[in-house]
Amino acid sequence: MTYEYEGKTEKEAIEMAVADLNLERDQFDVEILETQKNSLFKKGYVKIRVHTFDDNENSFAASASTEKKLPFGEVVPKGEFEEKLIDFIKSMIEKMGYDVKVAIAYREDKKIGIRLESSASSILIGRKGKNLDALQLLANIYAGRLGHEETRIILDTENYRIRREEALVRLAYTTADKVRTTKKSILLEPMNPFERRLIHTTLNDIPDVETKSDGDGLYKQVRVFYKGIR
Question: Are the C-beta atoms of 213 and 220 separated by less than 8 Å?
């Protein structure tokens, strides 16, 4: 299987892959897809493609642990809460009429990443990720009903979240360049709170450019404008 990651350096991107896939460095190959050096208006980054080995390709001894590891995450959830959460997500998607495998992708302080593997991934993602956001909202509501209101549940499939973040960062820089050239403000597409925050953060350190959110409701728009022009 292949996955794509982006970091400030090749080392950072590889470390992200190691953490996300729960593999050792010698259990996958790395292909450099794109390199962007630091410039006045753009931050540097390195984009890599990770190729994981199939079971018949690697010769590593099986772990003595009873918890089997796979490239898409940990198969066995830890504790009753994670078991119920996974069952809920799986049942919800199957009732929609789609096959799905659900696994824990990662665990952080007050955050659990869930990876969905389905032949209908594009449908689960939806336009601009709105279907995935809706499923994620329901998963968080269910987690709250189980007494875990403080735990944030993140759903992802086909590394959509990472790819979306990369696209938004590029959009932010491209928009900033246009605003600086034309001195006219640009209103971006409606985004959820996380996506808007990413735009604000990306452009925060760029001189002569400011951002603000316009509109009401969950999906507001970010306006990028040249300082002094409203």
Answer: yes
Contacts of residue 178, defined as CB under 8 A and 6 or more positions apart, other chains included, come to 186
pLDDT per residue over 47-56, tens digit each? Answer: 777 776 544 3
For the entire predicted model, the pTM comes to 0.59
The full length of the chain comes to 230
Q: Where does the chain show beta strands of DSSP type E?
A: 2-7, 28-36, 45-52, 69-70, 73-74, 101-108, 111-117, 152-156, 186-191, 209-214, 220-226
Instruction: Count CB neighbours of 54 within 10 A.
Output: 8
The 111-117 sheet, strands edge to edge:
69-70, 73-74, 101-108, 111-117, 152-156
d(CA 78, CA 38): 42
Residues 6+ apart with CB under 8 A from 64: none
Q: What is the pLDDT of residues 65-110, one digit of tens each?
A: 333 334 444 446 778 999 999 999 999 999 999 999 999 998 888 8
